[in-house]
Amino acid sequence: MSRRLVGIYLVVAVGLAAAPRFLDAYQIDVINSVGLYVLLALSLNLILGDAGLFNMGHAAFYAMGAYTAAILNTRLGLPILWALPASGLVAALFAALVARPVIHLRGDYLLVVTIGLGEIVRIALVNDVFGLTGGANGIFGIARPVLLGHKIRKPDEFLYLIWGFVAVTVFLFHRLEQSRFGRALTYLREDPVAAEGSGIDTARYKLMAFALGAAWAGMTGALYASKMTIISPESFSFWESVVVFLMVILGGSGSIPGVMVGAAIVVLMPEVFRTFATARMLVFGLVMMIMMVVRPQGLLPWRALRFKRSDLPRREAAP
Amino acid sequence: MSALLELRHVTKTFGGLTAVNDVSFDVAAGEVVGLIGPNGAGKTTVFNLITGNYRVNEGTIELEGVPLTALRTNRIVRLGVARTFQNIRLFQQLSALENVLAGRHCRTRTGLLASLLRPPGQRREERETVARALAELEFVGLRGRDLDLAKNLAYGDQRRLEIARALATEPKLLVLDEPAGGMNEHETGLLVELIGQIRQRGVTVLLIEHDMSLVMRACHRIVVLEFGEKIAEGIPEAIQRDPRVIEAYLGVEDG
Asked: Are residues B135 and A316, on separate chains, in Cβ contact within 8 Å?
């Protein structure tokens, strides 16, 4: 992380922390919504941006997490924040299981399979699989999260919970980016054949990217479930997957600040242009077309510079 | 001398086309062996079979007695076979250093959790990895270009960077596919020197090359392929005089 980026993060963090003083409940709720989509976009970015795997079924993992949390909470009375890791784990295991047979597919082929995956999960939820998901009505009566004995209920309380989770996520994902693991994903995206030929187990890293991205989407789903207190299959439609995909591509595939900006724009734009809500899709489509022509790498593209001159030791002898 | 690499009756077909037909040869530890032949003779296919990019239809390939034929490429690299590609396959958008770090991957251990939590062991390994990668850049003469993107390097430098990346995996056998392709006379001379230095490090080299001056200067032994079959094998002087090789390269004079 460059010093400038840390500075920008701090300014945004202070701004968000102070937001409840200046904004009304509705506006805070929109910001919370941005936070959830930022988390989804960051999680998809691991798969799509870092590892270069076209996944357009991300809502499936989001749904797995939300339903896991909802079922654990309503059936077993497990507090929602305790259910959070379980949601992540279930989504990750599910991703590892379903991705395994299709992981070798390339580009658009994988895209089509993941679209199918997202639809299968949604339809399974509508059909009330195992009698646990409540069919088309979904699950209601999900408890609010309780943090240190305090029940989180109001939008500005959720603001701190959601954006606190965003802060932790951004910190961890930046660390990941600057590590052996993150580099392996980058090699995989840049040239899978050369990566494998350099001794990197590409199949394993593809699966790990899927599992980790799914885990984060799953935990986001748990947060979403507790914020809404009611979830139903329509919240996890194909359209959700498309929107998150769009955020990553628009913001800058592989770039952590980029996909966050992408998420903010995609959520906020319809709010700002509420007057022509009906023409929203038109504007969306137009923006995408213009972006693809003018700036295909995204608004804040990924930059390769992981090492600075000052990081490197002085010259030394050959082995 | 015991064989490091052993090919026995290796055959590879693509549909109806037999690209490699019943080829057997050995590479002894410490040797530099050249694999030559006219275009389409199956040289690169042999390389792809050794490195696990293709699967053999018949025959066996063993490294120090360990069969490679069923293994995936990354396992073969870990066992000690590293390669470069005929049409350079660097990570073009990444720095020279990061390219070499890719090669260090299979010799380092930091996992997902350690990447996130950064315990002292991870930090130490990261430092050592970077130092080792820089040493490899120094070895091929690219130190100072560490942070330049691979795509911004000159063609000859890109070839050397690919060699550095391969060496970073600590190979026993280095497989070079046309390392002098696109190089000028001066660069080729430096490459011959570099191959000598690689051998001095105890790394065995198997290379494909069309530049006969390089092959004759750098190789101890030469294997000649034509139409997927081995037609000759021997020391450079013998190969130069071998009538079948001359025929394969120059054609037969009608008379």
From this structure: yes
**How would DSSP label each residue in A76-136?**
H---HHHHHHHHHHHHHHHHHHHHGGGTT--HHHHHHHHHHHHHHHHHHHHTTGGGTS-GG
A113-143 pLDDT, tens digit each:
999 999 999 999 999 888 888 888 889 888 8
Q: Mutate which of A175, A180, A206 to test chain B, going by most B C-beta atoms within 10 A?
A: A180
pLDDT tens track for A294-319 = 888 888 887 755 677 766 765 544 44
Question: Are the C-beta atoms of residues B131 and A313 closer than 8 Å to each other?
Answer: yes
Pick the CATH number of B1-80+171-255 from 3.40.50.300, 3.30.930.10, 3.40.50.2300, 3.40.50.720: 3.40.50.300
Structural domain includes residue A24:
yes
The tokens describing B4, both together, are: 């490091």
Average pLDDT over residues A266-281: 76
Share of chain A above pLDDT 90, in %: 59
What total number of domains does chain A contain?
A: 1
* Domain-located, residue A131: yes
Q: Is residue A46 part of a domain?
A: yes
C-beta atoms of A316 and B138 within 8 A? yes
